[in-house]
Amino acid sequence: MKLTVLNGSPKGEFSVTMQYVKYIQKKFPEHELKIINISERIKKIERNETYFNEIIDEIKNSDGLLWAFPLYVFLVASQYKRFIELITERNVQDAFKNKYTGVLTTSIHFYDHAAHNYMNAICDDLDMNYLGSYSADMIDLFEETERIKLSIFARNFFEDIRSHAITTKTYRPLVEREFNYKPSPTTIKVDNENKRVAVVTDSLDSDSNLSNMIEKFQNIFTDDISVYNLNDVDIKGGCLGCIQCGFDNVCMYQDKDGFFDFYEKLKDYDAIIFAGSMKDRYLSSKWKQFFDRGFYKGHTPSFEGKQMGFIISGSLNQNSNLREILEAYTQFQEANLVEIVTDEYGESDELDDHIQNFAREIIRSATSNYIKPSTFLGVAGTLIFRDAIFGRLRFPFIADHKYYKKHGLYNFPQKDYKIRVRNKMMILLTKLPGMKTEITKRTKKEMIKPFENI
Ligand SMILES: Cc1cc2nc3c(=O)[nH]c(=O)nc-3n(C[C@H](O)[C@H](O)[C@H](O)COP(=O)(O)O)c2cc1C
């Protein structure tokens, strides 16, 4: 069989993910895996329609399609996202329809599930036959047991294509709402209380719901707030994954475009609101570029202590994966997610009230420096990064290591000597006759005892 592999790594042939594809090729020489470097060549793909059409023809003429990509900031890289957008923009969905497909990623398992959910939904939207996904850790291939697992995935993938296996859809098509938001003039203003608020958007249409929501939001405050458009920022391209930033948080683009200055400027604000329209199952690739380029800060937060919120135009209620990504992003940033306002419910006057309330909440939280506790989304993510930066990623992420040390992030339980002594004593005690029953009897009371003094 002949399969097309769409390589999502901006590193092209130097991609770790492609080593996994090459391993599959080595194990199954009877099938041809044709790799196309999508992210690395995105500028040519966008500019040169003939080249784009050649890729689409290649897909059309193949027996199956493998989306193979590295995780980039909760999703695919911005360049890959742009390619996905081009499929609908250039109306070539037919090449994908009913095609057998699957996903192969490499990552350190930080939100790999979110990227897989995203791609599954994209494949469902394209009416493809989705056979499943495989999430390899970037170092898995060095382990025999992992190589066996990968081979089984590939074997099943090929077999399912050959036998025309039955597939089911996981995601329903998104239903968009016909609604034109017409904001009313604001009568009750919200006092900024000297808090600086910035809105960042990618809106290109000044009369869209998104632009109108931003305008409404802007007009609610007694003092001016700043509104920035990503399209006005000189951004030369997406993150290339070179990891030069690992040493000292200096991006290879630093003196070449305006992203660094823009991103750093956002730190001057007490509240940062991200505003965008849903594009397929995420925001735009422009927004993705913003998040990816922020990776020059490595695995450390850029906006800790800030109030954050999102103004989204689109059916977010049908896209819990995106909502989770936005929540997780905020928690990773150690910021406070005030709210996500969307235009999917209610009439214009209700949305007016919603935006008014949002503005009030931002100032209220900012004046009390409120950062709500993280949920599993933030807590689990922190632990993945802690272990990775302490160990295998300390080099080349030297700047992260320094940050983690300085901020006490290496909070391994092994260091908690008080707990270790207590555990030893209690475990020894349970070995004495009758003690287990005695301890069980007292556990509930003893557990709440330390709270008595608080
Ligand atoms: C900009 C950037 C963002 C990343 N984001 C994530 C992420 O969100 N989750 C994760 O588990 N790994 C993340 N990684 C790690 C890569 O997914 C991992 O190193 C992958 O194996 C790289 O594959 P490649 O060499 O094919 O590009 C990121 C790496 C880079 C450079």
Fold and architecture overview:
- By secondary structure, this protein is an alpha/beta fold.
- It has four domains: 2-162, Rossmann fold; 197-367, 3-Layer(aba) Sandwich (Rossmann fold); 379-411, no CATH class; 416-451, no CATH class.
- 42% of the residues lie in helices and 15% in strands.
- It contains 16 helices and ten strands.
- The strands form two sheets. A five-stranded parallel beta sheet has the order 2-1-3-4-5, sandwiched between helices. The chain has a five-stranded parallel beta sheet with strand order 7-6-8-9-10, sandwiched between helices.
- The longest helix has 20 residues, at 348-367.
- The mean pLDDT is 97.
- Flavin mononucleotide (FMN) binds next to helix 1 and strand 4.
Topology overview:
Blueprint: E1 2-7, H1 16-27, E2 32-37, H2 42-47, H3 49-60, E3 64-70, H4 78-89, E4 100-107, H5 112-125, E5 129-137, H6 144-162, E6 197-201, H7 209-220, E7 226-229, H8 245-248, H9 259-265, E8 271-277, H10 285-293, E9 307-313, H11 320-332, E10 336-342, H12 348-367, H13 376-390, H14 398-406, H15 417-430, H16 435-448
Helix pairs in contact: 4-10, 7-12, 11-13
